[in-house]
Amino acid sequence: MKRKFSSIRYTFIRSHLSHLFLTTIFLLSILLSVHVLFEPAWLTVQSIFLFILLYVSVSFLLSVYSGFKSTGNSLKTRLDAVSVLIKQFSNGNYQSSISFLEDDGDELARIGKELNELGPKLQKQVKSLQRMGDEKADFAKSAHKAAVIEERQRIARDLHDAVSQQLFALTMMSEASVKQFDKNPALARHQMNEVAAAALQAQTEMRALLLHLRPVHLSGDSLPTGISKLINELRQKSQVHFILDIHEDLRLSEAIEEHVFRIVQESLSNILRHANASQVHVDISKKSKELFIHIRDDGKGFDVTKDTVRKTSYGLKTMQERSEELGGTFIIRSNPDEGTYIDIRIPC
Q1: What is the rounded CA–CA span in Å between residue 53 and residue 281?
Q2: CATH code of the domain containing 179
């Protein structure tokens, strides 16, 4: 109710009423001054207050009517249109526009025209961001190739410094133990135990090297295929029930697919580490010219109103930054013991 009476319509009415009050005080002071100074027969106290009462009554009705009339069909309607257009821009619908009558040459018409010109500019900026994302993906490929070469060199050094030397030690110890079988069986048994321990250490080193080679990106797969593989792997390694809704024919630019995959990967990682959920639903769909990503879980949730949670969560920051790099919006809703909902809209 308080918000309703603070609208522009009631602001106009209050302005008219304030003017009415000041005018009434001014007229009353003049009439009373004339009555006191000149005492005309026709100007009595009763006539003064009768006139003021009639004036206030008529002016009050006219003020209310004028307030509704001046804002009802023109000003309020155009302000609502401007508000709706700004809301559409905030949601990423940059193709929206408003139209005013040609004879409306006031400030609101100028604002509407400038907003109509702003929409295409924002859309161009989004396309520029996405083009930069594609260029960034190309740079990432080049950097990835360089990183692969460097990683191969590092692995070669590690293999030479650790596994290769351990295998050489295994060979020497095995040959020595074979020679001791007939002469000193106890020493041979001790050396074979050392061989088994060295072999176990070499196996551990090899598993650690292979773990560093695990891919964490799409690796040439489409977005539906990559996310399906990721979720199928998580199904095998956790007790969480995953539900995936994504169309197999969904095709996006390479930069958008890479960012969306990393967003989904980061959100699932956060859920597995922190949410303690039993069910996770991932829904990715494309409608009109927008990509919608909805991720929800039935975990323990958290209080999103606390700034400390948003500031200290690196995963949430990363997902929001990736969404904004694509010109999209990132919204998270959660309450303690009520799960978490992530909604992302990306123009494409």
Answers
A1: 68
A2: 1.20.5
Report the CATH number at residue 294: 3.30.565.10
Q: What is the model's pTM?
A: 0.47
As a whole number, mean pLDDT of residues 34-63 equals 85
Task: Decide if 125 is inside a domain.
Answer: no
- Band the pLDDT of 346: cuts 50, 70, 90: very high
Tell me how far apart the alpha carbons of residues 175 and 166 are, in angstroms, rounded to a whole number. 14
pLDDT at residue 213 tops 50: no
Give ∠ CA 244-130-268 in degrees, rounded to 5.
Answer: 25
Beta bridge partners of 332: 342
Residues in the chain: 348
Q: Which residues contact 111 (CB under 8 A, 6 or more apart)?
A: 82
Predicted confidence band at 212 (pLDDT cuts at 50, 70, 90)? very low
Domain closes at, from 212, 233, 248:
212
- Name the domain count of the chain: 3
Residue ranges making up the domain that contains 20 = 4-90
Q: Which two tokens stand for residue 62?
A: 């006219």
At 135, give phi and psi (nearest 5°). Answer: -65, -40
Looking at residue 68, its amino acid is: F
Is residue 204 located within the same domain as residue 174? Answer: yes
**DSSP code at position 338:** S
Q: What tens digit of pLDDT does each residue of 115-142 get? A: 888 888 888 888 888 888 777 777 777 7
Q: Which two tokens stand for residue 220?
A: 């040439």
* Three-class secondary structure assignment of 182-246: HHCHHHHHHHHHHHHHHHHHHHHHHHHHHHHCCCCCCCCCCHHHHHHHHHHHHHHHCCCEEEEEE
| Beta strand 329-334 pairing with 241-246 | unpaired
Last residue of a domain, one of 90, 109, 125: 90
* 114 found inside a domain: no
Q: Do residues 331 and 294 make contact, with C-beta atoms less than 8 angstroms apart? A: no
pLDDT top residue among 294 and 318: 294
- Provide the pairing of β-strand 329-334 with 290-297: unpaired
Instruction: Quote the CA–CA distance of 92 and 76 in Å, as a whole number.
Output: 25
The answer to whether residue 249 is domain-embedded is yes
pLDDT band at 42 (very low <50, low <70, confident <90, very high): confident
